[in-house]
Each structure stands twice: as C-alpha cells, then as structure tokens.
C-alpha cells in the first residue's frame, strides 16, 4: 500500500477499534455498581452471602476468560479479527439480556460466565492494533486503547448507579443495547485488519488451548520474561478493586463520597497518561526506557500509597502512580515485535490468559492480606501492607524487565 494512502487508513482503523472497545467497556462499567446489589436481592438482603457470591462470580468470569482468550486469539489469526469481534459483541448482548431477565441465581451466574467468554475479545482488539500499526507506534496505540478503558470505567459506573436507582435491572438492558449497537457498528463500519496472506493456514485446537498459548511465550526467552512482567503488573493492579474501598475506610475514614472523588481522579489521570503521554514518553525515551520509567513510577506510587498518613497525601501520590500506565503499552509493543503477523492473536490470547490467572489469584491474595491487617489492628504505615505487596510485585517486574530487554 502506498505510504500516502496507508497512514489515513491506519488512523481510521485505529479510530474504529477504539470506538468498538470503548462501547464494550461502557457496557461493562454500567453493571459494576448494580451487580452486587442484585446479588443482595437474591440473597434476601444478606450482605455476607452476597459478598461471597460476588467473589464467586468474579472468579468464574476470570476462569472463563483464561480458557477463552487463547481460543479467540487463534481464531482471529485464522479467520481475521473482524468476525471474532462481531460474534463477541453479539454474544455480550445476549449475556447481558440473560442477566437482565434472570429470575434465579443460576441463570444470573450463567450470564456472567458467558460474558467471561465473549469479553475475551479485548485480546483480539490488541491484535488488531498490532496489525494496523507500525512497530514504532504500537506503544502509543496501545495507550489509546488503555484510555478507552479509563473513559469507560470512570464514567459508566456513575450512569449505571443512576439507572439502577430507577430499576436495578435497567443497567443490564442498556448494556445489552450498547453491545447490539456495537455489533451493528462493527458490521457496517469496522474494517478487517488482518490481510489473507498474513493469516494462519489452519486453526488447531492443540495450539489454541491456554497451555499451548503459554508455550508460545516459553519458545521466546524475551517473550517469556516480558510475559512475567505483564503478569506481575496485572496482579499488582488488582489491589485497587480488591481492597481500596475498605482500605480507604479503615485508614482514612472515607465514605462513598470521598471514594467516588478518588476513583474519578484515578480515571482522569489514567486518561491523560494513556491517551496523551504514552506516545510522547516512548518517542522521547524509547520503548525499553519507557518501560523501566513506568515500572519505577508504579513501584514508587504504590509505596507512597501505603505510607500516606492522610487521604490528601494519598491523592498527592496519584499522578506518580498514574505514570505506571506507560509500562504496559511499552511492554506490549516490545512483545509484538517478537512474533510474526500470523501469531499476534495467539500472543494477545496468551497475555489475556495471564491476566485471567492474575484475576483468579488476586481476590484471595489481597483480601486476606488486608484482613490480616484488620485482625491484627495495625494502623499507620503498617496498615498499607497490601500496597507494599503491590509495590514489591511491580519492583520485581521492573528487575525482570531490565534483564530481559537489555538487547532491545
């Protein structure tokens, strides 16, 4: 393709996939505040039982992603990204409708498991980015995709809570409508990114299962090391949803209002870093140094969170912690250069499986650590144990990244 034509085509394709991912994230964000409340209704108002089931729902969702992400990645390598994304959008709409009208807990659980299967298409979206973006610009493009996540998870829960006040099932219906709209958008607008000559010659189940996808990483020393970094980052990041609300109450005495303000600031800083700074930092430092810079900011940010004596000091550390967002796009960009176009889907599927493993391990790891802090009645800097644990993971990931990227 002529260079003068290729650049506008790439920009258009990136805009299309950005909108597709954003709509999917909005649909997920809508149900965040109401799913626990719906479970509470099913449990007759018993908060303890509802919390236990919420943890089971989260684990089941991640388990389904673990198995589905590499399969969808391999399918997209064989048949193209567009059909996989379209089928996933249609499947998500069905999942949300099942949850919207479920009258029993098993049906609600089935809907959540199915959403874990279909939401694995986020890995396919990353493969799409690798298809249409030259290697030197992939980190910035992955950052834009991260900005879509920031936008969706910042504003959608607010609207979801508002809709839930009208009818607790309305956010599920609106989410289903968004997914159906996304399917129509993709059907008529989203172009295919993987040209036929770059597709895998055949689809093989033995290469599409999670263990086979992880073997792809082991076959490349650099990939395996960077995959370990991505896993540690994914695990550390889950300290936020697992413990932040309870930690803020225990350490700072914050109610929902202050927690809401804090999450809004997190979302805004994420959008600024992912959407506006990743490309500039990578251009200035290069991918390897940008990765190390991001890991350093993440480790220091988590350390400052744990040490913060007041909530305002916690806020002061947030811009530093937000710069951690440079690390993941840089790592992904480096990883995409170590596999062929025919394996980009498998690579992203493997990364998706690793993130799912992190999602399975994190609830017990962080909640039990925080529970130990509370049971021991620890206060002051000792109360920040979960954030020190996250800081250690990121620091360890930084050391691994420094070692495996020395030749970059």
UniProtKB/TrEMBL annotation:
Keywords: Membrane, Transmembrane, Transmembrane helix, Transport. It comes from the Bacteria. SUPFAM superfamilies: MFS general substrate transporter. GO terms for cellular component: membrane. It comes from Arenimonas oryziterrae DSM 21050 = YC6267. The keyword Disulfide bond does not apply. InterPro entries: MFS, MFS_dom, MFS_trans_sf, Tet-R_TetA/multi-R_MdtG-like. GO terms for molecular function: transmembrane transporter activity. This is Major facilitator superfamily (MFS) profile domain-containing protein. Residues 13-408 form the Major facilitator superfamily (MFS) profile domain. PROSITE patterns: MFS. The keyword Transmembrane helix applies. Its main location: membrane. It is found in: Membrane. The chain crosses the membrane at residues 12-32, 52-71, 83-102, 108-129, 141-164, 170-190, 223-247, 259-278, 290-308, 378-402. It holds the Pfam family MFS_1. Gene3D superfamilies: MFS general substrate transporter like domains. It is a multi-pass membrane protein.
